[in-house]
Design goal:
407 residues, 2 domains, Lyase, Ornithine Decarboxylase, Chain A, domain 1, TIM Barrel, 9-stranded mixed beta sheet, 12 helices, 18 strands, alpha/beta, 8-stranded parallel barrel
């Protein structure tokens, strides 16, 4: 594979903005493929499978493209499962990992034939009592490891709602024994934006210790959380090093225990974050005694990550890339304090210029809303150099869709 990651130029993005309007999400298909090939190469010496965490971006065209690459699908709702099957994923290539849902949703997933990942003892017992040993499951464990780039995306610590505590292993064993339920996999996911390979190795050590309690085990799922760079000097997870270390650990485990387990991963942001660009228009340049604001035709109704997670997105003025640099605070147009970037150095911004937010493929459109009764943006996918509309921009009628007018 090429050592140079494919990207879209500012000129290409500006042309898309002119042709499709703004705000607009743009996804570069070849970047998704490049990221997936990196994973395959990094973990080529282990029995690894990859399930795209589609909660990061569920446009049906993205799902079909990821399916064509050969990935499986990680779903957190029954509707994501049905979207995945519509996109062409077969049940054996889908894992269903919800949390805090009732038994009916698990039963619906069971009827569809997908892998089921259970993250609480109550459902494990109910599912086991109903289906016994007729339908194998995976169990999500909480390894009590604090990791991730923000507390809101840390999911493996002691106060997390996710998973069954490893300290409840005896309770799990009692449920397994009393119901006859077969456990084929154990799963953990400690969080997102994990820079340190050691976190994954620590989690794997815990999982391998837990594996001894499950004689029918065929795989260990390490979730994901691979860090992607948002700034030029940002670190990222060294997946090549992780792949090497995992291969060594699994080889030793197989020699010592005589068990050849698969390792599963569920990358989401790693696959689609860097493929995405969010292009907006500068509506107004507003100077106050303290600040120069760029007010754009979007807000946290379209891209909430900077406000919700305090995340950084690189912003480029793609209409005036050679202009003199100025300091701006970039804000949105909804009736809340929706600041995308404070005191950011940008090439001079003029009213009407297009600004591009980078690393916008994951949890961008997916977390968007119609707050302030504003319309959701269009989505465009660029494949083989050709931009294609994959979601039309909302129209006014979309605001009323689903409402029942009784007065």
């Amino acid at each position: 594979m090429s050592k140079q990651a494919p990207t879209l130029s500012g000129h290409e993005l500006a042309e898309i903005a002119r042709n499709f309007g703004t705000p607009v999400y743009v996804y570069h298909a070849e970047r998704i493929a490049w990221q997936f090939k990196r994973l395959q190469s990094a973990f080529s010496k282990t029995r690894a499978r990859f399930f795209y965490a589609c909660k990061s971006l569920t446009n049906i065209n993205i799902l079909r493209y990821v399916h064509q690459l050969g990935a499986g699908l990680d779903c957190v709702s029954i509707n994501e499962v049905m979207l995945g099957m519509r996109a062409g994923f077969t049940p054996e290539n889908i894992i269903f990992t919800p949390n805090c849902v009732d038994l009916d949703e698990y039963v619906a997933a069971k009827e569809l034939g997908v892998h089921i990942n259970i993250d609480n003892i109550s459902i494990l017992e109910q599912f086991g009592n109903r289906f016994g040993n007729s339908y194998p499951v995976c169990i999500r464990l909480n390894p009590h490891i604090m990791a991730g780039g923000n507390f809101k995306i840390s999911t493996g610590h002691v106060d997390s709602k996710f998973g069954i505590s490893i300290h409840q292993i005896r309770h799990i064993e009692r449920v397994v024994k009393s119901t006859g339920i077969v456990v084929r996999g154990i799963h953990m996911h400690t969080g997102s934006e994990i820079k340190d390979v050691g976190v994954f190795l620590e989690g794997l050590e815990v999982m391998l210790q837990m594996a001894g309690h499950f004689p029918d085990l065929t795989f260990i799922d390490l979730g994901s959380g691979f860090k992607v760079p948002y700034k030029a000097d940002d670190p990222e997870t060294d997946i090549e090093l992780l792949g090497k270390k995992l291969s060594e650990v699994f080889s030793q485990y197989t020699r010592e225990k005589g068990r050849d387990l698969e390792v599963w991963f569920e990358p989401g942001k790693f696959l689609v974050s860097q493929c995405g660009y969010f292009v907006v228009k500068a509506n107004v340049i507003k100077q106050t005694p303290a600040t120069v604001f760029v007010g754009v035709n979007s807000g946290f109704n379209h891209l909430i990550r900077p406000m919700f997670y305090e995340s950084y997105h690189h912003i480029v003025n793609i209409s005036n890339p050679e202009g003199p640099e100025r300091i701006y605070t970039v804000v949105g147009n909804v009736c809340e304090t929706d600041t995308f970037a404070w005191d950011r150095k940008l090439n001079e911004v003029r009213e009407g210029d297009f600004l591009s937010f980078y690393n916008a493929g994951a949890y961008g459109f997916e977390m968007s809303s119609n707050f302030n009764s504003r319309l959701k943006p269009a989505e465009v996918m660029v494949m083989d150099g050709e931009p294609r509309l994959i979601r039309r921009r909302d129209e006014f009628s979309d605001l009323l869709r689903g409402q029942v007018e009784v007065l």
